[in-house]
Amino acid sequence: MTDYKEPFTLDGRLKAVPGVTKAKVAALTELVDETMAGSRASKGILEEAMVSTDAVFNLAYLAELTVLEDFAKLERNWDTVATVRTVSDFRPVTLYSLRPDWSGGGVLGDGDPRFVAPRIPEGATYPYAYLEQEVNQQAGGVVKRGFKTGFTFEAFINDSVGFLQALPESMRNIALDTDEWEVWNALITGVTTAEQLDGGTIPIEGVTVLPNAAISREALIRAIIELGQRQINGRKVSVSGGYKLIVESGTEEAVNLALFTLSLAEIQSGSKTFTVNGYDPLTGITVIGSEFVAAGSWYLIPNQNAARRPILELLRLVGHELPELRVQGNTGNYVGGGAVSPFEGSFDNDTADFRLRMFTKGILWTKELIVWSNGSGTV
Length: 379
Prior knowledge:
Layout: H1 22-36, H2 40-52, H3 55-73, E1 83-87, E2 95-98, E3 131-134, E4 143-152, H4 153-158, H5 160-190, E5 200-202, E6 207-209, H6 217-229, E7 231-232, E8 235-236, E9 243-248, H7 252-259, E10 264-269, E11 272-277, E12 285-290, E13 298-302, E14 312-317, E15 324-327, E16 351-364, E17 371-373
Parallel strand pairs: 1-14, 9-12
Antiparallel strand pairs: 2-3, 4-16, 5-6, 7-8, 9-13, 10-11, 13-17, 14-16, 15-16
Helix pairs in contact: 1-2, 1-3, 3-5
């Protein structure tokens, strides 16, 4: 949830046009709330203000304020598995890492020369480590998305309060759904057959797990084993901090009951038997449901910051982190001068258009850190 030092401008994200003030927006908000609560007197005052004062300009500001404030505060699903990265332009994003082979001086000290900084003798020259551009797993940079919707002057006059209820909420929900799709689509379309569950035996237990096995305790244990055997840039994968298990939306509770029922063990001490919590290798896994996951499929992904490399991220454009709401102002001018509110309708046909613009992009950086299965039990 976002807390703003200056809620009226959302810390500078909104710019008030002439005629729009904090006091006027507050008064208009009170009128709207009272009208929605059934006050006929407030409804009459509100309708009169819409056609005879600058309340319409404050209404446009209130609509935008409502959309953006709610957008920032509402919970979303994607941020349980992805972090946010702010970029400065539309160019494809690039991930760099230090090349692990040293050159140009120094003496390799104790330890693995691929990862350990070289030992520098007295007076010796420091060697270079070069930044290496990695191949982007999912090409592209932040993209522009949006839409517009319109209404007539008559429709607005007949239902100004309904407009306030419907438009901000509807536009906000589409913006939220867009971010959800970006992140989950990046995950689901970014992984390949190389990251699927290979299957095999579980050491000590001797249980065999099929390739692409349906979700089960054994399949998850095997997935964790396979993830630990993978290598990235010559180093074995290391995860500390737990995992998220992504399943089809609506199956979360059933998966929790099936996989994470408390494990108990009995210990005999003399003539007494004690029941204690048994070791559970799946401790630290949180189940997340997504409507974009196909039935039977599942994805095991480390928690944010549980691995050294970024895994799944949502890109934002700097200075445009929140959606932007605009209203079309092609209204002309009153005879004798003076601006005409966009809610009065356009010069040509008395219509007004609202437009939402946002900049977003889901990126899967490191698909090797994900194990997934389609649940088929076959290669």
